[in-house]
């Protein structure tokens, strides 16, 4: 995403927004922790928090030249696309690097928790993507 512009601003859903979108047991990590993690990434210049279900209002305020979304949004009309175009920007969909969503991590943890234990230990199947 950084290669598509001069300044990289990353929008993060607030805890309330994530809860509305993902369910009452989400998010797993607090908005402060998520913001700190993203801010620590070298290419990131700024992190903004938004409380809406979509980043439309943040985009209207920021008026980006380029709005970047991950490849998991390919083929979808984004709710914020019109706001990007209204501000003179364009939407770019970039390929995902790996596929490690929070939902995937939660599913793996729940799967592992359901496995039988021997002496407090769980044998992790190689199908879970763990190398021995």
TrEMBL record:
<keyword id="KW-0808">Transferase</keyword>
<dbReference type="GO" id="GO:0016301">
    <property type="term" value="F:kinase activity"/>
</dbReference>
<protein>
    <submittedName>
        <fullName>ADP-heptose synthase / D-glycero-beta-D-manno-heptose 7-phosphate kinase</fullName>
        <ecNumber>2.7.-.-</ecNumber>
    </submittedName>
</protein>
<dbReference type="InterPro" id="IPR004821">
    <property type="entry name" value="Cyt_trans-like"/>
</dbReference>
<feature type="domain" description="Cytidyltransferase-like">
    <location>
        <begin position="2"/>
        <end position="74"/>
    </location>
</feature>
<keyword id="KW-0418">Kinase</keyword>
<dbReference type="InterPro" id="IPR014729">
    <property type="entry name" value="Rossmann-like_a/b/a_fold"/>
</dbReference>
<keyword id="KW-0548">Nucleotidyltransferase</keyword>
<dbReference type="GO" id="GO:0016779">
    <property type="term" value="F:nucleotidyltransferase activity"/>
</dbReference>
<dbReference type="Pfam" id="PF01467">
    <property type="entry name" value="CTP_transf_like"/>
</dbReference>
<dbReference type="InterPro" id="IPR050385">
    <property type="entry name" value="Archaeal_FAD_synthase"/>
</dbReference>
């Amino acid at each position: 995403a950084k290669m598509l512009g001069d300044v990289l601003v990353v929008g993060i859903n607030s805890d309330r927004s994530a809860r509305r979108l993902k369910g009452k047991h989400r998010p797993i990590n607090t908005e402060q922790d998520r913001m700190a993690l993203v801010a620590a990434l070298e290419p990131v210049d700024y992190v903004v928090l938004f409380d809406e279900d979509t980043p439309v209002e943040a985009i209207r305020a920021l008026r980006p030249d380029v709005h970047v979304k991950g490849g998991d949004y390919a083929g979808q009309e984004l709710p914020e696309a019109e706001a990007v175009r209204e501000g003179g920007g364009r939407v770019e969909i970039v390929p995902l690097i790996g596929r490690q969503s929070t939902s995937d991590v939660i599913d793996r943890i729940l799967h592992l928790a359901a496995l039988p234990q021997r002496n407090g230990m769980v044998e992790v199947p190689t199908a879970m993507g763990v190398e021995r």
